[in-house]
Amino acid sequence: MRFALVGAGVIGAVHARLITAFGESDASVRLGAVVDQDLGRAAALADRYGGRAFASLADALAAEAVDAVAVCLPSALHADAAVEALAAGKHVLVEKPVDITLAAADRIVEAQRGTGLTVSVISQRRFQAPAAFIKDSVEAGRLGRITSGIAESAFYRPQAYFDSGDWRGTVAVDGGGALMNQGIHALDLLLWMLGKPVHVSAQTGRVAHEGIEVEDLAAATIRFESGAVGLVLASTAAYPGLPVRLSVHGDRGSAVMADDRLEYFHSADPAAPAAPPDVALRDGWGPVDVAHLAQYEDFVTAVRTGREPAVTLAAGRRALAVVRAVYQSADEGRPVELQEV
């Protein structure tokens, strides 16, 4: 599988590294093209990780035989690139969020429909061993009936982070702030564990940063179809920044993931395993890096076998729908009912 990487910025470099690492164990996986409107930046990344540099995806697809496109552009440009790739018959792996509006996400849904092509949205924390262990425990009934969950992303971004680019913290390009861009990973885990969300009540604010259009704090209550209730906190104003934390509670057990490890697990089921298996780390790689690579492996397997990827386009759209509902609830000062998620 040859990838075209669209977007040679910070996250694009991460994806280039992942594709190259994958190729160390599977020589058929490699980087065939790097695309960026700044051709010099694309060339620098291609020189380091392989492939040819192009200023547009159209040029790359015309010149190189690639199988899949990894979309690593600013959030508001995701759908444009994904739709173009699908129209050219390429599989698509798109960074989170899938885009910044449901209308944009639905353009990807429509472009994929009937093609048989694979589309997946990055949510690498699902592939961390503690998260997968908790999900398995939920599915196996080891926690009983799930009653509640809490997802916390208490991060910190200094003012300089937003001042470093005129697009940062903008509605038009970022689409949102602490929840859309940082907290969406923990939110996705909560949705993965608790199921279909039906009702959202939220508040957001800009409490610690100047000159941005988006929130640096969001808090929400989510009611799920099962009757369970979830709580979400996303912040970029929590100095010095804390690890992602996920708690899942049931009437026969509870589990907590924090700082990339299983912090607590207890089940009334005496046969329940006590902990997830250890995962070997590569030199210089952390648990999230390894999980990110595991999502690439899942995506390639999905393409090769024709099965759905572990993180589907529908799952990416659902996470976005909840983010949009949080913003709507906060803006209008009322609860919001979720439909078609």
Structural notes for this entry:
- The protein is of the alpha/beta class.
- The chain contains ten helices and 14 strands.
- Strand 9 and strand 10 (229-235) form a beta hairpin.
- Helix 8 (178-194) packs across helix 10.
- The longest helix has 20 residues, at 313-332.
- The chain is globular.
- 49% of the residues are buried.
Quick summary of this structure?
The chain is of the alpha/beta class.
Please write out the topology.
Layout: E1 2-6, H1 10-25, E2 30-35, H2 39-49, E3 52-54, H3 57-63, E4 68-71, H4 78-87, E5 91-94, H5 102-112, E6 119-121, H6 129-139, E7 146-154, H7 159-163, H8 178-194, E8 197-205, E9 217-224, E10 229-235, E11 245-250, E12 253-258, E13 261-267, H9 287-305, H10 313-332, E14 336-337
Parallel strand pairs: 1-2, 1-4, 2-3, 4-5, 5-6, 7-10
Antiparallel strand pairs: 7-11, 8-9, 8-14, 9-10, 11-12, 12-13
Strand order of the largest sheet: 13-12-11-7-10-9-8-14
Helix content: 25-40%
Biggest beta sheet summary: 8 strands, mixed
Helix and strand element order: EHEHEHEHEHEHEHHEEEEEEHHE
Structural class given helices, strands, pairing?
A: alpha/beta
Distance between the termini: 32 Å
Radius of gyration: 20 Å
Mean pLDDT rating = 96
Strand content: 15-25%
Which keywords apply here?
341 residues; alpha/beta; eight-stranded mixed β-sheet; six-stranded parallel β-sheet; 10 helices; globular
